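I had to read the description of the data format several times before I understood it. The format is easy to grasp once an entry is in front of the reader. For illustration, here is how one protein appears when written out as sequence plus structure tokens:
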Amino acid sequence: RRRHTRYISLTGVQTCALPISFYGEPGSENSFDKVVNIPPDAKWVNVKSGETVKFVDLASGKSFVWSFQLRNFAVFDLAVVAPRGVLSHEHLTVYVAQDIRETDDH
């Protein structure tokens, strides 16, 4: 059985009509696996599928929680899932690594 990796990019001029639920779902402000502080000069962040992450934008002081539930590696603009007005960045790329518990080999 061949394993295929799907790459998804929603940054720049490329667009995609995937529903927001493709990337996971909003999480609870009271329950998350880790906190990612986003400094003003950040260009990207790394997370793993299966993680629930609290993102804190250090420039705006605002935050949100997202539960990443993807079956494959993905790359997209964090603004796709962030509530409007939370991120002070024009573009912030999120790299979502595949959860090794979800691979065909385990």
User: Anything to note?
Assistant: Confidence is low (pLDDT under 50) at residues 1-15.
